[in-house]
Amino acid sequence: MRTVIALALLLSSFSIDFEARRLAKEMESRGKKLAVLDPCAPNLSKAERLSRLAQYGVVRQESDSEYSAGGHRISFEKYYPKGALQSCN
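Request: output the structure for the sequence above.
Response:
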């Protein structure tokens, strides 16, 4: 019983970003150091920006167009051009 409770607490206390973990394994298998990819870099898709934002922690959707993780925040345009980067820090 204690093991089940401990396991449940462990699983509920950790959030794992599988994309960041996959990227880390891929780069380690190539013998490269894991580089932090800039989510504010130009010419990235919304999906790629969110994937890169996940390097800083669990991505939280603050509103319909704002996301944050570990003190970093990305805002996208709500209207025209929809999905374009509005701000990134």
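The first strand starts at residue 60 and ends at 61.
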